[in-house]
Structure formats: C-alpha cells, structure tokens
Amino acid sequence: MIPNSVLARFAKTWQFTRSLTYDFLKVLNEESLSYSPHPAFGNLGKQIRHLGDVQECYVRALETGVADFSRKRMDLSMESSLEKLTHHLREMDNYLYDALSKYTADPLKQEIKWPTTRLSVLEHLFLLPQHEAIHQGQWSLAARQHGIDLPKTWVDNWAL
User: Fold this and answer.
1) For residues 154 and 138, what is the distance between their CA atoms, to the nearest angstrom?
2) What is the dihedral of CA 33, 21, 40, 38, to 10 degrees?
3) Percent of the chain scored above 70 by pLDDT?
4) How many CB atoms lie within 10 A of CB 1?
5) Pick the residue with more confidence: 71 or 6?
6) Ranges assigned E (strand) in 33-155
7) Checking DSSP bridges between strand 111-113 and strand 118-120, what pairing results, if any?
8) Mean pLDDT of the 133-144 span
9) Which sign, positive or negative, has the C-alpha torsion 65, 69, 75, 80?
C-alpha cells in the first residue's frame, strides 16, 4: 500500500500504462522481438528491455535526488526472451511500488535534479508513463508494419 495519496494516484496511472505494455508482450512471440522498422529504432526486445532499465533510473532518483540515465543496467541477454523481459518489468514494478510505499517527503515540494532542470518528485514520476507511452506509439507502428495484431486493450482504449 502507498500511504501518500498523491503517489497512490500516480501509481494508478502507472499501473494502467504498464498494463498496456504487458498486454503488448502477450501478442508477441520470440521471433517478433527481433523486429525493427528501422536500424536506428532498435528491435522490439531492446525497446522493451530499455523500459525496465529507464524505470530503474527513475526509482533510483527518488533515493538519490538525481536523475542519472547514464547508469542504466542494459542486460542485453534478455532482449530475445518474452519470459525474461516480463520478469524484468515486473521486478522494476516491484522496485517502484516499494519505493513509493516508503517515500516520506512531500512529492510536490521535494525535487529531483535532472541534467537541465529541477522537477518536483511528482513531475519527475509523471515523465515515466509519458516515456512508456511514447514507446507504445512506436510499437503500434512497428506491429502494424510487421503484421502483429494490436492487443484488444489498445484498440478499446485508443479507439484504433
């Protein structure tokens, strides 16, 4: 349970956004993880692994007060396995929820230092689902190009 009501509301938004990623993983197969619509895009497995790596940086920033994306985990071995990718994301979700449940500072007043700005903890956190949604949009295009049907939740929520 997350005692801070503001952080609990963030967690609800996050759960919805991440649930769409889990639904996308369910329509993929191991072969589709290697698909990339463009060499600079990275394949789907890399993109999904990247989400967990970036999420870890966001949570670490709650602990350190600094957003440092140069220290991402980047375990490339999981990029070709749906099971490993799902496990990675679930592990990062548990890390996030644990950090939110223990967070005691005021998320509207406490700040996180980014390379070019300072953001309140809440502003910092809301960039996480924004980042994930950007990738979901990229995956939507990649899936259609590769002949992958989008999850029903995507169609229902985005009226696709």
Assistant:
1) 13
2) 60
3) 99
4) 7
5) 6
6) 111-113, 118-120
7) antiparallel
8) 94
9) positive
DSSP state of 79: T
Six-digit token string for 85: 């990718």
Mean pLDDT over 95-107 rounds to: 97
Element (H, E) at 84: helix 82-102
CB atoms within 10 A of CB 125: 25
For the whole model, what pTM was predicted?
A: 0.94
Q: Which residues of 84-114 are buried (b: 16+ CB within 10 A; e: fewer)?
A: bbbebbeebbebbbebbeebeeebeeebbeb
Mean pLDDT for the chain overall: 95
CATH of the domain spanning 5-158:
1.20.120.450
> Which residue ranges make up each domain of the chain?
5-158
